[in-house]
Amino acid sequence: MKKICGLFAALALLVATPARADEIKVMTSGAFTEAYQQLVAQFQKATRHAVVTTYGASMGGAQDSIPVRLDRGEPVDVVIVIDAALEPLIKKGQVVTASRVQLARSMIGIAVRKGAPRPDISTIAALRQTLLQAKSIAYSASASGTYVSTELFTRLGIADQVKDKARRIESERVGAVVARGDAEIGFQQGSELLPIAGIDYVGLLPAAVQQVSIISAATATKATAPSAAKALIEFLASPAAAATIQKTGLEPIAQPTRLR
Q1: 23-63 confidence digits (pLDDT tens)
Q2: Helix (H/G/I), strand (E/B), else coil: 166
Q3: Of all residues in the chain, what percent carry a pLDDT higher than 90?
Q4: What torsion, rounded to 10 degrees, do the Cα atoms 17, 102, 38, 251 define?
Q5: What angle do CA 40, 230, 33 make, to 5 degrees?
Q6: Could you read off the pLDDT of 155-171 as tens digits, one per residue?
Q7: Is the pLDDT of residue 9 over 70?
Q8: What is the DSSP string of 53-111?
Q9: Phi-psi region of 198 (alpha: psi -120 to 50; beta: other; left: phi over 0)
Q10: What digits encode the pLDDT tens for the residues 67-113?
C-alpha cells in the first residue's frame, strides 16, 4: 500500500489537475502494450482525462498498422512506436518533431508452444542449429520481424535454408500463432511474447545478434488535445513509470523513482 501511495504521489507531482477533462486518442504498437495499459490506468485515475487507445504495428502495410491508419487520416493525439518508425511520420508531417520522447528499450525474444522442448539459443551456433532444425518459424510484421527476416537469418548464414518455412505474421501476435501450434518457433519483442498464454518464453536472442529498439512517443501534428497529450507522454517517460515498464519486459530510459 505504501508503494502504491508513493507512486500516485509521484504522478500527482508530474501531472497537475487539468482545468477540464480531455479525451486523448493514442495509437501504440505492441511492444509497449503491457506497460502502457497499466500506466494509462494510473494516469486516468490521477487526472480527469480519458484515454482512447488503438493498437497496431509500428511498421508495415497492414490496414491496422499505425502508418496506414495515419495515412488515411484517423484522429490521434499521441503516437507510440519504435523510434525508427517515427522518422517517416516526421517527414510526412504527421507528428511534431520537438515532442519526440524516448520511453524504453526493447529486445527480441523467442517462444515455443507451452510444454514443447525448450530449444537452445544460448549461443549463435546453438541458435543457428535450432532454427535449421525447426519445422516452422514465425516473425512479426513490425520492427523485430523486419530485422529477423532481412538481417538475422543472413548473419546466421541460413537465409536460403529457412525461407520456405519462415513466415511473416500480419495483424496478430506471434505468440498466439505459436500457442495454437501454427509455428514451432516465434520471434517478437520479448514484451509482446511474455503476456501470451499457451507459450513458453525461451528468452532473448544472444547479445551478439540482438537488436535493441527504442520505443518513443510523440504528439500528433493534428492533435486536438495537445496539452493533455504532452502530460501523458511526460508521465510515460517519468521515473514514476519506470518500475512498471521494467516488470513488463522492457528497459526504461528513466531511472525508477525511489519510494520511501
Answers
A1: 999 999 989 999 999 999 999 999 989 999 999 988 888 89
A2: strand
A3: 82
A4: -140
A5: 30
A6: 999 999 999 999 999 88
A7: no
A8: EEE--SSSS-TTSHHHHHHTT---SEEEEEHHHHHHHHHTT-B-GGG-EEEEEE-EEEE
A9: left
A10: 999 999 999 999 999 999 999 999 999 999 999 999 999 999 999 99
Q: In whole angstroms, what is the distance from residue 167 CA to residue 240 CA?
A: 39
Residue with cell 508503494: 3
Q: For the chain, what's the residue count?
A: 260
The amino acid that residue 27 corresponds to is M
Burial 230-245 (b: 16+ CB within 10 A, else e): bbbbebbbbebbbbbb
112 DSSP assignment = E
Cα angle value 42/33/107 (rounded, 5°): 125
Quick one: cell of 218? 510523440
- For the record, the C-alpha cell of 11 comes out as 504522478
Expressed in angstroms, the distance from the first to the final Cα of the chain is 12
User: What does the alpha-carbon distance between residue 231 and residue 228 come to, in Å, rounded to a whole number?
Assistant: 5
Q: Buried b / exposed e across 152-187, counting CB within 10 Å, b at 16+?
A: bbeebebeeebeebbbebbeebbbbbbbeeebbbbb
Tell me, rounded to whole angstroms, the distance of Cα 214 from its chain centroid.
9
Note the pLDDT of residue 18. 57
What is the DSSP code (8-state) at residue 220?
B
